[in-house]
Amino acid sequence: MAEVFDGRIFDHYGHYECAALAGYCEGADTYHVLPQYGYAELLDEDGHLVTEPGQVGEIVATSFIMHATPMIRYRTGDLAEFGGWGCSECGREVQIWRRIVGREQEYLEAADGRRVYMTAVNFHDNTLAGVQAVQFRQVQPGVVTVCYVGQEANEARMRRGLERKLDGFTLELCQVEAIERTARGKAQLVIRGDQCQLQ
Fold first, then answer.
1. Using one digit for the tens of pLDDT, what is the confidence trace for 144-176?
2. In this model, does residue 25 exceed pLDDT 50?
3. Structural domain boundaries of the chain?
4. Are the beta carbons of 162 and 108 closer than 8 angstroms?
């Protein structure tokens, strides 16, 4: 895309709750946390502040802009890799995130124990063309059932695309009438363990 439009691609991170916002600067492909928007922390699995570059933690944020319903130390469930403080390219002395890793609960476990986060399994191609909804269900490491809604879906194309993205996983495709939603009305992209009963 950058070549076609002869321009640099900028990425940013944000969420509906408006507690944290981060984006690329004019010179670096790292996320600069905007301190005027909210106070963002990265916490490890034990709830301790991540302080070493390269460590991954959950984004926990306090909003400075939500006055009616303030968010205080809101646990986003999103993971980011800490990159330290200050950007050598633009000179801004802000918290740096090297990358957004994904959602804490949205990963698949490979047979060797690796976690494959769904942000790494992007769908910016035609793999899911004709699919209205999709859910990845996993009961055991390395094996995934891909449930999808969509009469127009091309299952052979889906399988080829998913096998490229999830190399080493055993995949089963299953067309369903609907993807069950949570009590809050959200469709979970990944469910594991006892939740994985097929509809």
1. 999 999 888 889 999 999 999 898 899 999 999
2. yes
3. 2-101, 107-196
4. no
pLDDT for residue 196: 59
User: CA-to-CA distance for 133 and 150, rounded, in angstroms?
Assistant: 7
Separation between Cα atoms, residue 48 and residue 173, nearest integer Å: 40
Which one, of 126, 121, 82, 129, lies nearest residue 102 by Cα? 121
For the cut 50, the answer to whether the pLDDT of residue 45 exceeds it is yes
What pTM does this model have?
0.63
pLDDT of residue 80: 94
Q: Which fold has domain 107-196?
A: GMP Synthetase; Chain A, domain 3 (3.30.300)
Q: Which residue has the tokens 């986003």?
A: 76
Q: How far apart are CA 166 and CA 28, in angstroms?
A: 29
d(CA 125, CA 161): 9
**Letter string b/e over residues 3-19, b meaning 16 or more CB atoms within 10 A of that residue's CB:** eeeeeeeeeebeeeebb
Token pair 């990265």 is found at 42
Contact assessment for residue 154 and residue 170, using Cβ atoms and an 8 Å cutoff:
no
For tokens 């905007």, name the residue: 34
